[in-house]
Amino acid sequence: MLIHHTIAAQRAALRGRAPIAFVPTMGNLHEGHLALVRQARAAAGPDGQVVCSIFVNRLQFAPHEDFDRYPRTLERDCALLREAGCDHVFAPDEAELYPEPQGYKVQPPSALADILEGHFRPGFFTGVCTVVAKLFHIVQPHIAVFGKKDYQQLMVIRRMVAQMALPIEILGGETLRNAQGLALSSRNGYLSDEQREQALLLSRTLRDMLQRHAAGAALEETEAWAMAQLSAAGWAPDYMVLRRQHDLGTPAAGDALVALGAAKLGNTRLIDNIEGRGA
Ligand code: PAF
Predict the structure, then answer these.
(1) How many structural domains is the chain composed of?
(2) What confidence tens digit (pLDDT) does each residue in 177-213 have?
(3) Ligand 1 atom at shortest distance from the alpha carbon of 53
(4) Which of 23, 100, 127, 137 could cross-link to 60 by cystine, CB 3.0-4.6 Å?
């Protein structure tokens, strides 16, 4: 496995190589990321090249968010990636990727990017799309893998690739959970042991929302119930919603549903989602 810190080195190493399967990350890797890398490895085939980027992207953090506190664990990440079958790690520093303030940005449409995560994190998806577009230009992958844990992000990226006619196949990776059902996330590292137990309430409530709605409870009633569940347990929920899988719009009868939630437990904001089928 090769580690590249400059755009020129990464490009030179991939010149003429195909197929290229790419997993963009911000590092601080866990099993969930490694599953995406293994998926990329399988998609690229034995002769393909698997590239993983590690870059904590300032553009997608609001000033009050955890950019400075986000763990930088390059050495450990590289050891895990080598094990998972990665061929190239692209780990630029900020001055390499943003040598001047990034004035050109990729702004996704408001209907998809200013709801849910985008509503609570204004500008988040512009930051994500801008860095992902830039990484796509550098790596020029044929395949890219994004986790379904960031459900809305996966959808925003799929739409960007389709609308910009980028010749990249986007694959969604299933969310990995621990034995109790907690979705793996870099942010779980901020939780105390006690909070890890409490954190199970998020996925449990999303699952219950799908069941309640399938059993006949109205949408608004189900969402209000879920918000109350979390609040009563001391969380500060941002949203707990049922949306249609297709475009995250308000579902009609028969639409395939996804329950999505975001909530703060102490100082840590967790997100999760579970796909289901509505009544
Ligand atoms: O999902 C992430 O870790 C980030 O949003 C991504 C896609 C690597 C862009 O910085």
Answers:
(1) 2
(2) 999 999 999 999 999 999 999 999 999 999 999 999 9
(3) 8
(4) 127
- Regarding the beta carbon of 24 and ligand 1, being less than 6 Å apart is answered yes
Tell me whether residue 58 is annotated as binding.
Answer: no
Domain of residue 217: give its range: 186-273
Residue 75 is part of a domain; what is its CATH number?
Answer: 3.40.50.620
Q: What is the pTM (predicted TM-score) of this model? A: 0.96
Tell whether residue 33 is among the known ligand binding residues. yes
Contacts of 6 (CB under 8 A, 6+ apart): 92, 96
Distance, CA of 95 to CA of 168 (rounded, Å): 27
Quote the pLDDT of residue 66: 83
Regions of the chain with pLDDT less than 50: 278-279
**pLDDT recorded at residue 229:** 98
pLDDT value of residue 234: 98
Q: Would you say 203 and 228 are in contact if contact means Cβ atoms under 8 Å apart?
A: no
Domain end position, chosen among 145, 173, 201: 173
